[in-house]
Every structure is written in structure tokens, then in C-alpha cells.
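User: Reviewer 2 asked us to show a designed sequence for the structure in our supplementary figure. I'm pasting the C-alpha cells here. Could you produce the per-position amino acids so we can include them in the response letter?
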């Protein structure tokens, strides 16, 4: 075994990270943070069903490994996933884990709300997110580029009709460092792409602030409000048919 390891020094270093994620307590903590928001140690302890003392050790390991980031606010510390790469890796593992049972698991009524709409590291996922991405492409709001998408003129006008200030997404207003504003992200429940990136985060922020979508504390699932259904039906035909 030692000879094999010495002959493959440049292989991906998966074992350490895999061992951290494989622990059931840490897995529950990481999944709780997939929305992209901060959580206190107490919230994570409740989500993982462990004591605060036990939680401290798990948090230390995840921070040391670079999977979590910590922010001090007054006397309290809050935790989130270190970055979007971590979130995408966790969802990729979930896709593999459910590969043989996906249809059965996601047909369960207990997952209906989660499947219809949810927060995925700050952007909209689930059926609503996938359909929105499809419609934005079908209506030519998004134009493909080597590293993702950019907004077209019709896309800028479309967002303005939804009450979104689209000037910050105008290609002429973007610096080279921010040109990659949108790209696809494979959806956990739908196994198709939804939209990710700064543009997707801006859209979800607007939907939440406008109370078109509502989130219950401690959940990733999002509820579509009557106002949201009416406004988003302008671009999503399924909402007019009450299909979501």
C-alpha cells in the first residue's frame, strides 16, 4: 500500500475531506448550511441533535479543513459554508448517494415543498428554479459565453419589468473580475440545471425582499406567495396553470 501511495503523489486528496463529511453529525451540520446563510453554534447543535459541547469539536475540525467559515459578531460567532465550491460538492455527493433511489425519494409528499422551491447557497433551486432558468434561456434573456451566461438586452428589459434594477448586470458596467455573473448548477432534486452565480443571488434576494417567496426559519424550502405567483407568472407559464 505504501508503494502505491508513493507512486500516486498527485492524485486528489479525497480521504481527509471524505472522512469529515462522512460523520453523520457533521453531515447534518453541512446540509443545514446549504442555504448559504450563517447559523449559530446553538442552531447547528439543534439541527444535528447534539450538545453544544459536542458541537464545538465538530466546528473546529470543519473550520480547520476549510469547509466552514466563521464570523464574529459581538460576543457571538456565526458559521457558514466556506464558499460555493463546498456547496456544489455536497450537492454532487447527494446526487450520487440518491442515484438508485432518486425517483422514489423525491416522490414522497414530505419532500414536496423542498422539491418545488428551495434556497441553494443563495440562489433559487427546485422546480421553480429549473423552470426559471429554462424560461430565461427560451426567451433569450441569457446569452451563452465560454464561462457561463451574460444578460441580453431583452434580459435587461425583462428584469426591469419584474422591478429589478438590472443596471449592475449590464455588460458595459461590469469589471473583468465580475464578468462571470451566471452559470448552470446541477439541481439536486430535478437533475437538471438551475441558475447560479451573482445574478441568481440577486434574483433570489429580490424575490425574498418583495415577499414573492417566503422561507420558514430552519428550512431550505421556500413557499411561493400569492403575490409572487402573480408576478412570476409573467415569465413562468406553469404558474398560470398552477403546476407549481
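Assistant: Here is a per-position design you can include in the supplement:
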Amino acid at each position: 500500500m505504501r508503494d502505491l501511495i508513493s507512486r500516486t503523489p498527485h492524485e486528489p486528496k479525497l480521504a481527509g475531506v471524505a472522512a469529515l463529511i462522512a460523520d453523520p453529525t457533521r453531515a447534518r451540520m453541512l446540509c443545514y448550511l446549504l442555504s448559504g446563510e450563517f447559523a449559530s453554534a446553538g442552531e447547528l447543535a439543534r439541527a444535528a441533535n447534539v450538545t453544544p459541547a459536542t458541537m464545538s469539536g465538530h466546528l473546529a475540525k470543519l473550520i480547520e479543513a476549510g469547509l466552514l467559515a466563521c464570523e464574529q459578531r459581538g460576543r457571538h460567532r456565526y458559521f457558514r459554508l466556506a464558499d460555493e465550491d463546498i456547496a456544489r460538492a455536497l450537492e454532487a455527493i447527494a446526487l450520487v448517494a440518491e442515484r438508485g433511489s432518486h425517483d422514489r425519494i423525491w416522490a414522497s409528499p414530505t419532500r414536496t415543498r423542498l422539491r418545488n422551491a428551495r434556497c441553494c447557497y443563495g440562489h433559487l433551486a427546485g422546480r421553480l428554479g429549473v423552470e426559471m432558468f429554462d424560461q430565461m434561456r427560451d426567451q433569450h434573456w441569457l446569452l451563452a459565453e465560454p464561462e457561463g451566461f451574460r444578460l441580453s438586452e431583452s434580459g435587461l428589459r425583462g428584469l426591469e419589468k419584474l422591478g429589478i434594477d438590472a443596471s449592475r448586470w449590464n455588460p458595459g458596467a461590469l469589471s473583468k473580475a465580475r464578468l462571470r455573473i451566471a452559470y448552470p448548477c446541477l439541481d439536486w432534486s430535478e437533475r437538471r440545471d438551475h441558475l447560479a452565480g451573482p445574478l441568481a443571488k440577486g434574483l433570489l434576494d429580490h424575490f425574498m425582499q418583495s415577499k414573492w417567496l417566503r422561507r420558514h426559519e430552519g428550512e431550505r424550502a421556500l413557499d411561493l406567495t400569492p403575490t409572487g405567483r402573480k408576478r412570476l407568472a409573467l415569465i413562468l407559464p406553469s404558474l398560470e396553470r398552477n403546476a407549481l
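For the response letter, you might also mention the following. The chain has a mean pLDDT of 87. The longest helix spans residues 84-97.
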